[in-house]
Structures are given as structure tokens and as C-alpha cells.
Amino acid sequence: MNAEILAYHAGLAETDKAICEALATEINKGLKGAQCKLYHGHPVWFIADNPIVGYHKLKAGVRLLFWSGQTFEEATLKNEGKFKAAGISYASLNDIKAADLKKWLKKAAIIQWDYKNLIKRKGVLERLS
Question: What is the domain partition of the chain in residue ranges?
């Protein structure tokens, strides 16, 4: 795993670290070949320079965010922001449902909006095929 992400995990409390390590392991399995790096200070995975999924520590736990998650049509994922992102928060390792995470990662690899060119398109998102 990326050294920056390992350093991010090292700075977390044990409960949050366990959640993040479990998420990173599953994301790496589910998005083989995706590039991972710190993006705005948080671990994010990219396909062809397009952000796909990431997580970060919040006061109440760890939030997992899918940039195109609103398009997954999954009630468990809550809409985030004004674009197509949706996410879920985890307060403990037991909150992570492996089957849901695998399903969402499969959708994340297929259903993508072009965040890479968002600024170039002046805030207009286009669906990638």
C-alpha cells in the first residue's frame, strides 16, 4: 500500500485505524489497478486520474465516499454535496458490511462521472461510458 496512506492510518486512533485498514484492503481488492494516494489530505483511489472512492476520519467515525455513488441507486449510501457523491459512515469495524462494500466497488468501477475534467467543463459533470 502507498506509504502516504500507511502514514495516514498510523495517525489514527486504533478503532479508526482498523476501519481504514479494512476499507483500504477491500478497495484494493475491488479496484485492482486503481491508483491510490492522498488527495486533499485523505486516501482516495483513482481510475484514469478520475477519483472513484476514498475515506476520511470525521468526529463520529470514518466516512467512505464514492464520487459517483448517487448513481448506484443504493439506499444505504447518503448523498453528499451538490454533485454525484454518496457515502456512508462507520463508527466501528463491525459496521462494515463486506457484501455491500464489494457490490459498491463493482458499481464504482463501472459507473463513473468525469470529475477529472470538472473544472475544465466549468462545473458540469458528464457520465463516462
Answer: 3-128
The neighbour count for residue 50, using CB atoms within 10 Å, is: 18
104 phi/psi in degrees, rounded to 5: -65, -35
Residue 10's identity, in one-letter code, is A
| 117/17 Cα distance (integer angstroms) | 32
| pTM score, whole prediction | 0.89
The residue behind cell 458528464 is 126
| pLDDT tens-place values along the chain, 129 residues long | 789 999 999 999 999 999 999 999 999 999 999 999 999 999 999 998 999 999 999 998 999 999 999 999 999 999 998 788 999 999 999 999 999 999 999 999 998 767 776 667 666 667 776
C-alpha gyration radius of the chain? 14
Write the class of the CATH domain 3-128.
alpha beta
